[in-house]
Amino acid sequence: MSVQESTFHGFANPVDPSPDELRAWAYHPDSVPLTSMPPDWDLLVAGDHLVSTLFELAMDQNCPARRFALHCLYIYAADGIRTNFKAHPKRRFRKLVEQAERGGDELMRNWAHNSRMLLARPELFVYHDWCEGGLVRDNRRLG
């Protein structure tokens, strides 16, 4: 049985979900609504431990929680860049950006483009865009 076919029954620890739990939730997000999650849950899950899972979910056009995963990737990118990669490894970040450029659709290529723009011009950081979902909702490319 695949993750998409199974039912998700909740997180053992929502503050620190496992990759399998996050993946299962992403295909059944109504089973545990975001409104019931801890405050700033997006900030909690947007770290190294789950970034590969978030990237996989964001790349899947059929994932119901895709936009949430993409939102977390924006947080991850901004956090890494703004801390000069003390928060996250630069190598992992670059690999994700390159993967999105090669195999992603418009949403993912925009994330890659915007991440490269922020890397080149950190002054482009606007909290609303990067950490509150503005760039996901608008799906725009920074110039």
Describe the structure.
This protein is mostly helical and 143 residues long. It has one domain. It is 57% helix and 0% strand. The protein contains eight helices and no strands. It has helices at 19-26, 41-45, 48-59, 66-82, 90-103, 106-120, 127-131, 134-138. Helix 1 runs parallel beside helix 3 and helix 3 (48-59) crosses helix 4.
Element layout with pairings:
Layout: H1 19-26, H2 41-45, H3 48-59, H4 66-82, H5 90-103, H6 106-120, H7 127-131, H8 134-138
Helix pairs in contact: 1-3, 3-4, 4-6, 5-6
Please give the largest β-sheet.
Answer: none
- How much of the sequence lies in strands comes to under 5%
Order of helices and strands: HHHHHHHH
Query: Which structural class is indicated by helix and strand composition?
Result: mainly alpha
Instruction: Give the CA-CA distance, first to last residue.
Output: 44 Å
What would the principal axes of the Cα set say about the shape?
A: globular
Please, how many helices? 8
Helicity level: 55-70%
Overall pLDDT level: 93
From the alpha carbons, calculate the radius of gyration and give it in angstroms. 15 Å
**How many structural domains are formed by the residues?**
1
Supply the key terms:
143 residues
Please give a quick description of this structure.
With 143 residues, the chain is mainly α. It has 8 helices and no strands. The longest helix has 17 residues.
